[in-house]
Amino acid sequence: MISRRNLVAGIGAGMASALASRAMAQSFPFKPNQRYPDPAIEILDPSFAKYRLYSSTLEQVATGMRWAEGPAYFPEGGYLLFSDIPNNRIMKYSEKDGSLNVFRSPANFANGNTRDRQGRLVTCEHSVTRRITRTEKNGKITVLADSFEGKRFNAPNDIVVKSDDTIWFTDPVFGIAGEWEGFKAKREQDNTNVFRIGTDGKLTAVITDLVNPNGLAFSPDEKKLYVVEWKGTPNRSIWSYDVNADGSVSNKSKLIDAADQGSLDGFRVDRDGNLWCGWGSNGALQSEPTDVNGREVYQLKGRPEDLDGVMVFNPQGKPLGFIRLPERCENLTFGGPKNNRLYMASCHSIYALYVDAHGAT
């Protein structure tokens, strides 16, 4: 005989299952390596060996997204927030119980997220609203900026908070360029800038000459600002700038060039100043077609399976190591109770790896 209590419990479990299924898109099967050290961690320079934990292997902690981006870790609650852009939502992964839930939907096609120095979520709303918001501790959403010189932003992309509480973000056009990461819309800004929001709320365009700037981060001492340029170099690159006392930047120099195959996206810096960069194929095609089963096909430059992962560079731009992933990595962050767990947002999934490095912030 079914009791009322069991019936209610069954209905609740069914509803939870339905909600969970709606929270998923395409799940990606993953078989972890059983051996130590994990061959997915490749040492390109002997100096990287000290950052590899011999008895740590790559884990897939969440899957079911269409385009995972913008991971931000919150140590107070032991959870990771990240965007699933085409599904117009922010997801929440809990370290405590391994659960994956929808944190916010709709989310105005949120892209980059970060945690400010007071433990609040700061988000780049990538389309529709095209603004920078802060989620207060009580859940209220505060709009920090939505326009520059009377014109709407393009599509705020990635974001970082400096130790002086100023907020820096990039504004390329991806969220309004088509119908995948938002809604196609008219561009209003003449340039694709890097902006700074002062503690007084003043908005400044600190970099105006990059074509679609993307990921950005500071060096550990915050004397350098690094910014990915998505186009125009002609390859994707990371530019380095000196950060001046007044909040301006100067002395632009190229630190990393991804060459004609690789793709730079989001990245983070560790306490030693190394840059941990999301990596993958940039989609560039060979100049001539090749025969594939009787058809002339323009193949990619480089194989995605050889490029997908995380590339690690030292502060001088020298490649040190590579973390091989089964999916292209868009963005990453350091987290975990000791700030030494690398979370990697990679297309459909979130991967994690304990390393002997700690995030700079």
TrEMBL record:
- The entry marks the following residues as binding a divalent metal cation, namely 69, 214, 265
| UniProt signal peptide | 1-25
* GO MF term list: hydrolase activity; metal ion binding
Q: Which UniProt keywords apply?
A: Hydrolase, Metal-binding, Signal, Zinc
Catalytic residues, per the record, are 265
Q: Which Pfam families match?
A: SGL
- Identify the residues that the record assigns to the SMP-30/Gluconolactonase/LRE-like region domain, covering every copy: 67-347
Q: How the cofactor binds, per note?
A: Binds 1 divalent metal cation per subunit.
Q: Which positions in this protein are listed as binding substrate?
A: 157, 181
Q: Which co-factors does it depend on?
A: Zn(2+)
Report the superkingdom from the record: Bacteria
**Protein's UniProt name:** Gluconolactonase
Q: Which organism is it from?
A: Bradyrhizobium macuxiense
